[in-house]
Structures are given as C-alpha cells and as structure tokens.
C-alpha cells in the first residue's frame, strides 16, 4: 500500500513534499485546468477537502485532490509523476481512494472524446484507464473552466443535482457559483 501525506497549510514545514507537489501539479494539468495552488491548499482547512501526496517508500508517485459531500467524493485532480507513469501507480491510487472512502461513489470529470482534438490519443487512453478501474460514464457532460468534460462515477449512479451539490456544499453558495460546472445534456 502506498504511503500518504496530507497537504495542508503546514506543508511549508515539508519543503520536499511541497516541491514535489508543485512540480507535478504545474506539469500535469493544462493552465486552464489549474486552480491557484495556494487556494487549493487553503481549502484543506475544510474537513471535506483532502489534498494528498502518494509515496512508494521515499519515491513521490502522485497526488489527488478530493471534495466529499455525503456519500460522494469528487476526484478533482489525480496525477502520477512522469517518472513512474505506466507502472500501475494511478490504479493503486484509485484503489486507495476506494479504501479511504469505502461507502462513497467516487466521481470525476474527463475530457470528452474528440477525434479532431490535438490530444485525442491521450483522451482515449485516459478514458480506457478509468473504464479499466471500474468507472462508468454517467450519460451527461459539463463545461467546467471552458473545458467540455464527461462525468464518470464508480459505485453507482449520480444525479445531476447530486453532482452539483458537491461544489455548492464544499465552496458555499457564492464560491460555488464560480466553481460550479455547467451541465450540458
């Protein structure tokens, strides 16, 4: 089992973990998908938000950022270090998330499949990865930060209202307006 470190405001006391997380966060996600890192860390004061670094011994292998509301956990970010990609760590992290939230439906967004997109092959591989790890398409998609995304879940269906409630209840009514996906279909 992978070891974890929670990323909180006290991360400043652990400069190596902070450096690992920063490097991976900024390299793994396109700029338009990145929330300010300081905002993400500040939000961890809420019990329902977890920012986690994953290690195999001393080797940093990945990170997740999750929001929980009731029996739903939204996986906002998942990334594995480029040096270990393709070695099963992403699947191990997803297994560990299921163990951490044993009674929760775990939800995520995934770029819609678009054969004309420059990254169509990456999109296809990501979708295959999540399908292989027991995620299913919900049948609806959204626009979030100008990105067209499919909504996927594991452990049961999630309604559109339930999905939107994750953001409202984690960020409050005002911030929830800005951090809320727009459902399409």
Kindly summarize this structure in a few lines.
The chain is an alpha+beta fold and 185 residues long. It has 5 helices and 8 strands. Strands 1-2-3-4-5-7-6-8 form an 8-stranded mixed sheet, sandwiched between helices.
How many distinct helices? 5
CATH topology: Aminopeptidase
Tell me the fraction of residues in β-strands, as a range: 25-35%
What's the arrangement of strands in the largest beta sheet? 1-2-3-4-5-7-6-8
Tell me the major beta sheet: 8 strands, mixed
Going by CATH, the homologous superfamily would be Gcn5-related N-acetyltransferase (GNAT)
The top level CATH class name:
Alpha Beta
Stretches where pLDDT is under 50 for at least 5 consecutive residues are none
**Residue-averaged pLDDT:** 92
Helix % is: 25-40%
Task: Provide an overview of this structure.
The chain has 185 residues and is of the alpha+beta class. The chain has one domain (3-184): Gcn5-related N-acetyltransferase (GNAT) (Aminopeptidase, 3-Layer(aba) Sandwich). 35% of the residues lie in helices and 32% in strands. It is built from five helices and eight strands. The chain has an eight-stranded mixed β-sheet, with helices on both faces. Strand 2 (49-56) and strand 3 (59-69) form a beta hairpin. It is globular and about 45 Å long. It starts with a strand and ends with a strand. The mean pLDDT is 92.
């Amino acid at each position: 089992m992978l070891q974890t470190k929670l990323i909180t405001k006290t991360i400043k006391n652990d400069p190596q973990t902070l450096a690992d997380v920063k490097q991976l966060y900024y390299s793994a996600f396109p700029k338009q998908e990145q929330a300010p890192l300081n905002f993400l860390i500040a939000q961890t004061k809420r019990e329902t938000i977890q920012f986690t670094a994953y290690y195999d011994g001393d080797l940093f292998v990945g990170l997740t950022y999750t929001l929980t509301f009731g029996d739903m956990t939204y996986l906002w970010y998942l990334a594995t270090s480029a040096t270990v990609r393709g070695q099963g760590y992403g699947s191990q992290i997803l297994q560990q998330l299921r163990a951490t939230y044993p009674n929760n439906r775990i939800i995520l967004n995934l770029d819609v499949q678009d054969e004309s997109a420059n990254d169509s092959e990456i999109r296809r591989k990501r979708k295959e990865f999540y399908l292989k790890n027991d995620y299913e398409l919900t049948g609806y998609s959204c626009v979030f930060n100008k990105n067209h995304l499919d909504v996927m879940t594991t452990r049961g269906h999630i309604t559109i209202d339930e999905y939107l409630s994750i953001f409202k209840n984690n960020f409050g009514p005002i911030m929830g307006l800005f951090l809320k996906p727009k459902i399409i279909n």
